[in-house]
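Need tokens for this chain, all 715 residues.
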Amino acid sequence: MKKNKAIAVVIVTALFLGLLTFTAAIGFGPTGTGSAKNIKTGLDLAGGVSITYQAVGDESPTQEQMKDTVYKLQQRVDGYSTEAQVYQEGSDRINIEIPGVSDANAILEELGKPGSLEFQLTDGSVVLDGSQVASAEAGVQPDSMKNKEWVVQLTLTDEGSKAFADATSANVGKQIAIVYDGEVISSPRVNEAITDGRAVISGMAGQSEAEKLASSIRIGSLSLKLEELRSQVVGAQLGEEAIHTSLIAGAIGLVIVILFMILVYRLPGVVAGIALLLYTALMLVTLNAFDITLTLPGIAGIILGIGMAVDANVIIYARIREEIAAGKSVLNSIQTGFQKALSAIVDGNITTLIAALVLGILGSGSVKGFAYTLAMGIVLSMFSALVISRYLTLAFYALFARDKKYYGEAKERKPIDFLGKRKICFIISIILIVLGPVTMGIYSGSGKGALNYSLEFKGGTSTNVTFNEDMSIADIDSKVKPVVQEVTGDADIQTQKVTGTNQVIIKTRTLDLDERNSLNDKLAENFDVDTALIASENISATIGSEMRKDAVMAVIIATICMLIYIWFRFKDIRFAASAVLALVHDVLVVLMFYAVSRISIGNTFIACMLTIVGYSINATIVIFDRIRENLKVMGKKESIYDVVNNSITQTLTRSIYTSFTTFIMVAILFILGVPSIREFALPLMVGVVCGAYSSVCITGALWYTMKERMLKKEA
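Here are the structure tokens for all 715 residues:
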């Protein structure tokens, strides 16, 4: 790179960083467009709109009908926010909480009034009802003149497909009216028998009409007819203190990581620091641009992204030092270092990206929100490491940094016999894994529950209290929660303010009648509230069985996809099997920690587990990449045993440094965070340590054990 080009690269980078920083910090225009303060935040961080519907009809709804309606509504409101929550309240009510919005009326108008849906023949007989419609989407297709027209595409259930096939076969050329809440909203003509369960409604005037019809059909596909009972704007669950401390923790953690990188890697550390700042600013601007709702699980995705951005830079700079130590020129070392690091970075990030994409497509709720943030973080971290870091390093070399003293030199390290200690490592891992179900069995036998499930998993009681004054989040945490905990004996308490009123919603474990009365009396005694204004309802879990199934299925499919990719890239199923077994190992060890520590398991539990999976697989890929490289280079000169030990030793510095920097980010969050954030950060710290341990001590040993058995069979 010539000096003129180098100067241009430095100036452009500085301007780009300045522009991004200005955008993230201040934004443009009177509303601060693009600024971090305009990032949509979830109910836990900023509050939102709460809407309660009640099932109406001559008969009380069944539990199956309520569950089905909750699930379908969850899919519906995911369009407003990936972090929207839908749960049952009492026997016939459904509550929807949508974060990051403040206009309840606008949401209600947009969401529509859930009502009954029927497909009727001209004689009024019903062909289908809404429950037999699986999906309805607006789209475009070519008409008879090859012009694009807007249509509504319907997919029916198995039961609906059969009924619709019979009806359309007998009524070709006739109309079938779509009736919503007693009003005909469309009367399409049957042109031919529809037997495959897929129908298209044409003749739409435009996109708006198509989307409105599709929306009405989707709402009408609910199992129950619902009526709005109340709507209100609720405040944050964690309060401004949580956001403030999280921001401070993130800033402190980032500064420590940058200083560490400079201390260890000298000039490349400065480059890494600039790349990390660019990554952080880009992440904030991109979150704003894509209108993604940020919650605690989303923060986990950002932390993982920072860890992966650091990891990519560590891999590159470690390679540069190795090349300098081998006697190559500085320029050649830089070029070769980036080239050799490329496969490990790309494979590690793509593997994690595959998981994120699958989770985003198949997951729901917090899983989807986490996946979006993680996927974005992966793409941006790769850009910062492979583009920004590369061009800046070459630019600094061209300007002044031609001496190897600016980069350091890798010291020759005697190979550590990791494989010789594999039996000890396997025994330690087995003990840790077995400790989990043993602990869960003990607690389950004592009636305390195998795990400490939070309200999100097991439901509870919602108590609406009208205080005599406007209670702040800090006052609620310091004054109200201790009183509630005294009655319930449970520390897992969630609170929300109702904006514009003195009402506070208190969510606890399920309380019986005596406990409800006792709580009411305590609140009256301590705060002089009117017990007549206290309303209590049992609520269902926000993480329903369907959502759990979605999460589990998404994780299974993501794991299979990762296994296939690793198998394809490394041409050896044993690499893939070892990586997956290590992932299972890390998840089970962290699950053991949850069981032993009795930390509550809620929304953040899913995010924590997914973060560990993403982090662990990335670390494993780096070691496997080095094993693959050394097998080609060393050939038959060294035994496979020595190759594995050498590879793990060569990447040990990277494993330690990356784990340390990621651990620092989470540890600062744990130290400075509010209690709910600490409950999230602590198992994440355990997961980071466990991921580093499994990558170094387990994965290589597993691959070697499988390889050794194969060679013995062939012999």
